[in-house]
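Can't attach files on this board, so I'm pasting raw text. These are the components:
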Amino acid sequence: SDGAPGPGHWDADAAAGGLVDLAVPGGAFSGRRAPCLKNPVLGPGVLQAIRIFHTRQPSLAPIPCVPEYGGKVCLGLIPKEFFQFLYPKTGVRGPYVLGTGLILYSLSKEIYVITAETFSAISTIGLLIYVVKKYGASIGEFADKLSEQKIAQLEEVKQASIQQIQDAIDTEKSQQALVQKRHYLFDVQRNNIAMALELTYRERLHRVYREVKNRLDYHISVQNMMRRKEQEHMINWVEKHVVQSISAQQEKETIAKCIAGLKLLAKKAPSQPVL
Amino acid sequence: MNENLFASFAAPSMMGLPIVVLIVMFPSILFPTPSRLINNRLISIQQWLIQLTSKQMLAIHNQKGRTWALMLMSLILFIGSTNLLGLLPHSFTPTTQLSMNLGMAIPLWAGTVITGFRYKTKASLAHFLPQGTPLPLIPMLVIIETISLFIQPMALAVRLTANITAGHLLIHLIGGATLALINISATTAFITFIILILLTILEFAVALIQAYVFTLLVSLYLHDNT
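---
Top answer:
Structure tokens for the assembled complex are below.
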């Protein structure tokens, strides 16, 4: 968080800055930066007191990785390399014989004296071995779990950040895709407007047609009515005059003629079969 | 027994050189500096323990009291580690020396008292008289409270010294009893050895408890005065 690079990377600027400090006469903290250190008696104490604890990695050089497992030991004390060292000359049982011999020698020559302390040593060391054998693995697992929790926390933050950025990318992509498909919307809108225009035009056209037809129908019906009136009037006039022109005598003659005709027909009729 | 009972409490010297300084500085090696984000098991457990203890110990303090966090945590780590290391055979425990415990207790106690008098003079002086005392008892009570105040560093030092020394002495004595009884009656020696084992367990507990008590009391004195 303070911009320092992770382990394994040189921080050239800081290293150069530190070296520049050393180049100034008077050492890393010269008088121009820390006047309290000029006092020769209290200077070193102040230097230690103002040293900052644990703000960044203590060394700027690349530090090697932590080995995953410790070195192998036998009896919890003696590294296996010692056994390997003695193996070519004394075989597998060599170091054990050496150890037993040394212990017996020191006991017999009273180099190691059996005192009260021996028994307290037996009880203390025995207790420690018992505790380590019984709870050692679980304590190790607990320590591993602590580290794992720390890593998991940081990993979670990292994953959350990645997820956030991924979501932003997806949103941006979908927005861009939407922009590509905008023309559909515009086409639909254009089509709608065209249809509405067409509809209005046809409607108006139809109305005009209807209005014109109405006017023309009116004139036609007026004409028809006039002609019919004229006809009726003429017929009435002709009938009236015809009826007027028929005198009484003509009427009698016509009737006599009709009767004579009928009599003639009546004579002819009975000779024909009735159908 | 060719050495007296108190030989293990003598200040250790090798060829005339006092190496007690080296012995006092030795436990600091056992607390490595965490140099990475994820450390090895030892450092992880130590970090967890320190976090647990400091959270619990500094909960009661205000902002001013929490500036003592480093001091208190160093104190409990030092006393705890020296006490536990002293239980190993043939080792020297610095905290059995009254001189060292006085050297730890007096400056810390004086620090808390002087802090109290500097920043809250009236409240510090008011500690000398508990609330609600009847009027005739006041002079005597002030004297008693003063004595009780000045006995605090002595009590701190002597408590630690006496506990650790007594524990070591008992282990010595019972070990010696076991040694002496082996030739007389093996069964009794065995019973005594069992007692020794139980005592060792007790001593482990006492080592840690004493460290805690020392630090807790300093913390309480601090709380009174900040």
